[in-house]
Amino acid sequence: MAYLHTPLLILLGALLAEAAFGYPKALYAAIRHPVVWMGGLIAALERRLNVLSLPFAARRRRGVLGLGLLLLAVGLPTAALQIGLLALLPWGLAVGLLALLAATLPAQRSLYEHVAAVADALEGPGDAAARLAAGRRAVSMIVGRDTAVLDEAGVVRAAIESLAENFSDGVVAPSFWCGVAGLPGTALYKAINTADSMVGHRNERHGAYGWASARLDDVVNLPASRLAALWIGLAALLLPGADARGAWRAVWRDARRHRSPNAGWPEAAMAGALGLRLAGPRIYGAVRVEDHWMGDGRAAATLADLRRALRLYRLACALPLFCLAAAVAW
Questions:
Q1: Cα–Cα nearest to 306, from 105, 163, 196
Q2: Model confidence at 1, in pLDDT bands (50, 70, 90)?
Q3: Where are its TM segments located (predicted)?
């Protein structure tokens, strides 16, 4: 029976280790991060295969080929490693080692730290203009929009939106696929998600080549986005001042109206739980992107809302850990 829930034990150990230690800076300085390695391979494949002079259909086929090569390069060694460790080492030791390796891929701790840095900047030293400038710099590290045009409420909304969306694709999704298949599951998910972030753009260079990466990322994130909304809604039940009914109402009404098939679910849940409006029109570079609002609360988000969102996020991370531990123990 122990072998039947091996992926769940790997996931439990990985989440506990990542929450406690994150990804050590010394290790990053020495060998970088697995996502950086994946990004290097994605960039190399794109330079080799994405020939802009080719017809659209040919570039799309090359994008499918590039994605397939990436998945083989990530999936085969991680699957071989998991199978080999479980076959050659005592089961408990193998699970522990696999959990430590898988702990490099979720981003519970780093996401919290990056969003908390925005809150720290907005309440840091100096006058209001200096604090706003610091907040814009901090939030520019986690969002792709033009932060120079954001006022304080815009900075706060951007940080909360990033917290909600990345809770889904940076925490829940790698955890879900780790629970399904262990180390290769979470590694393959991160490869797909990284490919989408690098080449899955609707522009002249990547519109054809990145099509397969963007579509596959939508598919593999579908269960996680719904689970993320569920965890946020449940966490709202436990956080004083949060509105769980508002979270469910916003998800039911607004999630499907988001331009992304997945991002609307956690963003709507977060908006409803905090009594805010998130998403809406945004500026990326010089391009204004029209999108529906998630939630029907205040657009004028405050620093207090950001701190409350961080507390809600921590509860939303703790709840699945508790449920997973209980399931494994049972």
A1: 163
A2: very low
A3: 64-83, 89-107, 312-329
